[in-house]
Amino acid sequence: RQHDSRRIGLMKATDAQADAQADARASKGVEAAEAEAEAGAEMLPAPGLIFKQLTVEDPRAIEQSASVMAKAFLRSPVYRYIWGDDTDDTGREAFLRFLFERNIQLRPECCRCVTDKGDSKGREQFVCSFMFIDPGVTPPSFWEMVSVGLLSIPFRFGLFRMLRLLEVKDWYGRAKDEVLGAERQALQLERMTVLPSFQGKGIGSWSLKRALKEAKQRDLPVFLATQEERNVRFYSKLGFKVLTEEAFPSSSAFRNWFMLWEP
User: Fold this and answer.
1) Which H or E run includes 113?
2) If you write DSSP's letter for every residue of 217-230 in order, what string do you get?
3) Is residue 154 classed as helix, strand or coil in its secondary structure?
4) How far apart are CA 261 and CA 35, in angstroms?
5) pLDDT tens digits, one per residue of 93-139
6) Residue 52 CA to chain centroid, in angstroms?
């Protein structure tokens, strides 16, 4: 009987050791999976890509980023509403390029972009751009808007377009406060775009994952609004959730999806 008791005790000890080893392997498996996911955010979707933050000392980069955004948002419902004439693509693109370039000049540190140097001559091409606005960034002052030429919009492009731009801006600000809460701190994602010739290669997801990694490190959520349903599917795959969907209150209404990513 003593022999049986010792054997039973030995079996229990062996089982306990096996369970501990299994738990350790499972823990390592989770850590490995997390490390693999982290590495996935760093892997280049194509050779020659560079992710960077703009500076005010790089006017060409600001111009190129604005151009990428203007081409991508040319047919966006909100800018078609602001411009008014749906047949004038050339005029609307010039307006968007002017507007986006001035916006970036006011806060270049909020602009993220991806450049490609993959051709044989090493020529840099801007293929992805977006604004990633810190909650601590203060709105531009009147004189700052004067200095970059934003207040020349009525003279360059027409007063009614300036009025529509202000109308949309005011509505968006009120809607954001209602959906998110006026006091809640969040990074804001705007004008996420990839050149059509570079789409479908994972560049948008790769660059946005880098930005979300930054948000996670700072323990801040990320807020956005989109007027394209296909964009909702794209952002949902990256962990964004739809907070609400509503239409712009105008006779030329367009739908808006307000979305949030949380660390």
Assistant:
1) strand 111-116
2) HTT--EEEEES-HH
3) helix
4) 21
5) 999 999 999 999 999 999 998 888 765 566 678 889 999 999 988 88
6) 14
